[in-house]
Amino acid sequence: MTEGFDGQKRETLRRFAAVGAAAPFVGTASADDEGSDGNETREAIRGYVPTTPGAHFSKLRDDLRLGTGEAQYHLRKLEEAGAIESVKDDDYRRFFPAGRFDETDKRALGYLRRETPRGMILALLRDPDATGADLASALGVSRPAISAAAADLERAGLLDRTDGYALTEPERLLTLVVRYADSFDAAAVAVADDAASLVSYDP
């Protein structure tokens, strides 16, 4: 059983390491990396973070099949090297490729990584006139859950509740959804596929 898990872990690391090695803006593993396993793990993280920006520690650790201490060690080394950066988001620490996103993008990606806020954003991108009741029905959650998520999105500057629910930066949010749809969920992929029809064109 352990051998099978180790094989799956190695395959996962190699897949993301290939992405990391091919991404010039996040560099390559330094010469002081400790052996091939350390090098491969660090390159995997370099590949994972740009393709899944805003992922929190537990998701990164689990997706890459790393141990907690192993993930902490390599993330710290990469932050010290200036290859990645992290921000605290309530109870989460989220990771981003260094220097690539502004603060609004980071906040937006953080909320796109949360199930209910992401569902609300996707639903409002499709139907800007959706009400709280519409959103609760579409997401299969309670009205209080929608209200709580809406308050969080408003504090983050991503939602205006003055007159219903209105995304403050729909174009930015749609761009992030399209660019990273595969790292979210099937609903995000569906919105990304329909993005052309969701963009208003007014020459």
Q: What's the CATH C level of the largest domain?
A: Mainly Alpha
Tally of structural domains: 2
| Percentage of residues assigned to helices | 55-70%
Radius of gyration: 19 Å
Number of E-type strands: 5
Question: What ranges have pLDDT less than 50 throughout 5 or more consecutive residues?
Answer: 20-33
Strand content: 5-15%
- CATH architecture of the largest domain, by name, is Orthogonal Bundle
The strand order across the widest sheet is 1-3-2
- How do the SSEs run, as a string of H and E? HHEHHEEHHHHEEHHH
What would you call the structural class? mainly alpha
CATH homologous superfamily of the largest domain - what is it? Winged helix-like DNA-binding domain superfamily/Winged helix DNA-binding domain
Mean pLDDT: 86
